[in-house]
Amino acid sequence: MNGIKEEKSTFDKIEKIGHGSLVQHGKLNDRLYLIKLHANDGEIITNMIEKIAAESNYSKIFVKIPFSARNGFIRNGYVQEAVIPHYYLNAEDVWFMAKYLSKDRSIPDFVDLKNFRKVLDSPLNSLKYNADPEVTLRELNESDIYNIVEVYNKVFKTYPFPIHDPNYIRDVMKSHVRFFGAFFHNHLIGLSSAEMDRVAGAAEMTDFAVLPESRGKRLAYHLLNLMEREMLDEGIETVFTIARIKSAAMNKTFINSGYTFSGTLVNNTNISGNIESMNVYYKKLLV
Predict the structure, then answer these.
(1) For 47-101, what is each residue's pLDDT tens digit?
(2) What is the distance of C-alpha 194 from the center of its chain?
(3) Whole-angstrom Cα distance, residue 88 to residue 94?
(4) Is 132 helix (H, G, I), strand (E, B) or coil?
(5) Strands, DSSP E only, in 101-140?
(6) The domain defined by 110-284 carries CATH number 3.90.180.10
(7) Is CATH 3.40.50.300 the classification given to domain 13-106?
(8) Where are the alpha helices (DSSP H) in 122-196?
(9) Helix axes 166-175, 145-155, angle to 10 degrees
(10) Cα separation of 61 and 32, whole Å?
(11) What are the domain boundaries of the chain?
(12) pTM of the predicted model, to two decimals?
């Protein structure tokens, strides 16, 4: 699947199955993603998701599950791709696992892996950078939604979730996602979001986007620092991210900010027009 282009632009479907397990699936990412496993679905979930994947001829199943549920997946041929320790209320680990339904999907781009190894091996930079005095940071709200969508449309040709849809942004903003923006003379030039799982006490630091003409200002670094402070105020104990393996700058931003690399999700996500491998990083805010 290395270098495969995905032409279909419709978003993948997000739905509940079984007793309430949450999945995302569709041809955009050519996969089924088990986002959240309901405790009562542990014995039946692999049959359910594999039936959906077989009917739609997806090439990958990707699951995010508690450590205690791992054995059922291992027995059914799933392999571990990444782990975040003490994820659930700073206690039980979360495992990211995959089952490849196509051999091509399981083969990483070795050029990407080689380049990423150089990033991992490069010296750590723990310098603190001052923000551009002409740039202001703040949390975004419903009045910013169309500006949010405009930035995402300019930065990402495709994305695994419908961040180009104002209604989607509005819905998640009302429920569990906080968006943050960087402004230059009152013009939104960069943004990011923190997707909170308050039950688990964890949050994903995600959806980083900076307009091409505004790069080089370390906006992602400053947005990440702001989000970490806000997540601490929310009582969030663990933060993590899933970063594109091709983006050396984003990987370095997380490494330099004290995040630990925990694994690569091979050929996992359709972003900017291609299915790409993604790296998982995590950080403990409360230890």
Answers:
(1) 999 999 999 999 999 999 999 999 999 999 999 999 999 999 989 999 999 999 9
(2) 10
(3) 7
(4) coil
(5) 135-139
(6) no
(7) no
(8) 145-155, 166-175
(9) 120
(10) 5
(11) 13-106, 110-284
(12) 0.92
